[in-house]
Design goal:
By secondary structure, the chain is of the alpha+beta class. Helices cover 42% and strands 14% of the residues.
Length: 443
């Protein structure tokens, strides 16, 4: 038996002699799509105004930075430290980034500086670039949009809450109330006993976070009360492409943000050159409000399919604006029809699926940044990564499916059989090319 002994390492090794893995075919196909669309030149021209000419050390190529954001989603990494470490450790990712074997990959601190330097508009333009590529491949339709929202856990604790008027934290506020009730020099135990007996209400009008003022107190999807943001998606129900992703404050009501999201989705579709105009919007009952439906119908000229919440008795329209009754009853008639029920099922299936990809599988439920602008930058990068998953399958023809590197052989699907678009972190989306409803994501 041969025993392991310490060996002296050679002074240098030729790069062509280094062992190379075949890598993942997904990154190769995605790079082909990005290069064919001129992604690197596009982001370089987009970011050029925010860099000094001839000053400082050589900068990181913008194309490398945005590819690293894509890697964060593909590899299931939510932090920039994890992204930087993964890119430095993988030869396959080095090839995807275009970093030579003798060069160092960007560190997490460099990613932070670039993110802070670039405004939110740059990330929105990169998002629009992905939509434009989708239109060129014939993937985006844009006629019917499903809108839904979810909560994102903020990088701030409830203990960071302070009063808006006085700046007091919770303990100082309770102590002041106890003294006002007649307690002299209350101890910590006295304050806890007093706080349990009084009626408590943590209102966003009275409290704010000292560490993240843009976050708001809200109830999360799992029932916890936490500081959070609200992310809203506008999803094309035919192709499942997210045409608009907006981050709002968590206390912004759904009926108030719906017209803004729809108008943004219409602008993005026009900029991308969508073959169809936005005509229909499908939403759940949380968006149902008579004033909002009237605005969307009469001002934005979009036909709504909004699920209506159960109400007792008949509604009274005597003191309502003219035309509001007709809009509400027209929406009710549509959602009860065959097409309305079908669109409602698609909204539940495909609208919610976009959040599963971004927030659950992609690690976007918990944000590690602070400030609505910084959170929006990171979130737009993750949504763009989700949409780019569809490109490698269509980069050569609609008949070829990507298989995981662990699969034996080079299997190819046909247009009449199931296709698999594999992600590098071993999660894949399985569907049937002959059906309108793709399968559920599996791990």
């Amino acid at each position: 038996m041969r025993r392991r002994e310490s060996e002296q390492r050679p002074m240098w090794v030729a790069s062509h002699e280094l062992p190379r893995s075949p890598g993942h075919v997904f990154y190769e196909k995605l790079n082909e799509v990005l290069q064919r669309g001129g992604f690197d030149r596009f982001v370089e021209e987009l970011c050029e105004p925010y860099y000094a000419e001839g000053e400082g050390r050589p900068s990181i190529h913008p194309g490398v930075y945005f590819r690293m954001l894509f890697v964060g989603y593909f590899e299931g990494l939510s932090s920039q430290r994890g992204i930087a470490w993964r890119c430095a450790d993988s030869l396959s990712l080095r090839s995807f980034l275009g970093v030579a074997i003798t060069a160092t990959t960007p560190e997490h601190s460099s990613m932070t500086r670039i993110r802070k330097r670039l405004p939110e508009q740059v990330f929105e333009q990169v998002f629009a670039f992905v939509l434009k590529v989708a239109v060129e491949y014939g993937l985006l339709k844009g006629k019917t949009i499903a809108v839904d929202a979810t909560t994102l856990e903020a990088n701030a604790a409830m203990k960071s809450l302070v009063r808006r008027e006085t700046g007091e934290d919770w303990k100082a506020y309770v102590r002041r109330l106890a003294v006002a009730e007649g307690m002299e020099n209350p101890t910590e135990e006295d304050l806890r006993r007093f706080d349990k007996k009084r009626k408590k209400k943590t209102s966003n009008k009275e409290w704010r976070s000292a560490t993240d003022p843009d976050s708001r107190v809200t109830k999360m999807k799992d029932g916890r009360t936490h500081l959070a943001y609200k992310a809203e998606h506008a999803v094309d129900v035919e192709s499942e492409f997210v045409v608009a992703a907006v981050v709002y404050r968590a206390d912004d009501a759904d009926p108030e943000t719906l017209p803004v999201t729809l108008e943004l989705a219409r602008e993005k579709l026009r900029e991308a050159g969508s073959p169809k105009e936005l005509e229909e919007a499908v939403v759940d009952k949380g968006y149902h409000k008579a004033e909002t439906l009237q605005t969307v119908a009469e001002v934005q000229h979009i036909r709504t399919y909004a699920a209506e919440p159960a109400r007792r008795g008949r509604r009274h329209w005597q003191d309502k604006p003219a035309g509001q009754q007709a809009v509400v009853y027209g929406n009710r008639r549509r959602i009860r029809g065959q097409r309305g029920r079908h669109l409602g099922r698609l909204r539940s299936e495909r609208g919610e699926r976009s959040f599963a990809h971004v927030c659950e599988t992609g690690g976007g439920r918990r944000t590690w940044l602070r400030g609505i602008a910084e959170v929006s930058k990171s979130y737009l990068g993750r949504v763009a990564s989700v949409m780019s998953l569809k490109f490698p399958h269509h980069s050569t023809s609609n008949a070829h499916g990507l298989q995981s590197g662990a699969d034996a052989g080079e299997e190819q699907g046909s247009q009449d059989h199931g296709v698999v678009v594999a992600r590098p972190n071993n999660s894949s989306w399985v569907g049937d090319a002959s059906q309108d409803h793709p399968g559920q994501p599996r791990r």
